[in-house]
Amino acid sequence: MDLIPSGFVARPLKIVVIGAGISGIQFAHDATTSLSSIDLEIYDRNPSLGGTWYENRYPGCTCDVPSHTYQFNWAPNPSWSSLYPPALEIHKYLEDVADRHNLRRFMTFNTVCVLAQWNEDSSKWKVVLRDVVSGEENTVFADVFVYAVGRLNNYKFPKIEGQKTFRGIQVHTANWPADMVVKNKRVIVVGNGASAIQCVAALQPGESQSHTEDTPR
């Protein structure tokens, strides 16, 4: 029996991904190894990939999951330095993975998404992007829109009475200055979550006194 050729013709898919952290890297690998005829673009607000592991650099920042389970199953790393590796090592791992699998070519940095709107008539996503350096905006259209920004790097300061008149330095663990010096300073840490526990333990050898506060439960 002769086979009748199918009338279906595959068309290229334009895919736009917001976020070049762990989720964005995972999607880039899956899309490029499982799909054909795709046009993939990944945008991230930071100057480099890594997401939360690019941004979080506070003292003592580590992974709270054993290193050999906190990695891509398609890119195992047998050379972790410890059971709970520091943030810089995790970020280096993500960079190495992206380079080894040639995923960085899909990524554009210093870019934020200001609008993502679905158009029923064209069956396309309208995505408006803004360069955080120049402020210039650019519009792209996509068949698939993936929001992969995560939740661990959107921070805010708590509202504390007298905060605006406080003359000392105020920092957030999610936006720790690279040149921050705490030696011989009195430090108060608000909160007792994972970041605070790691931060206090790392800061104590460098200051005269530290104290942790948390809201009553």
UniProtKB/TrEMBL annotation:
What Pfam families does the entry give? NAD_binding_8
Q: Which prosthetic group or cofactor does it need?
A: FAD
Flavoprotein is among the record's keywords:
yes
Reading the lineage from the top rank, the first entry is Eukaryota
Q: Which UniProt keywords are listed? A: FAD, Flavoprotein
Query: Matching PANTHER family, A to Z?
Result: FLAVIN-BINDING MONOOXYGENASE-RELATED, L-ORNITHINE N(5)-MONOOXYGENASE-RELATED
Q: Which family does it belong to?
A: Belongs to the FAD-binding monooxygenase family.
This chain belongs to the protein called FAD/NAD(P)-binding domain-containing protein
Q: Which organism is it from?
A: Penicillium nordicum
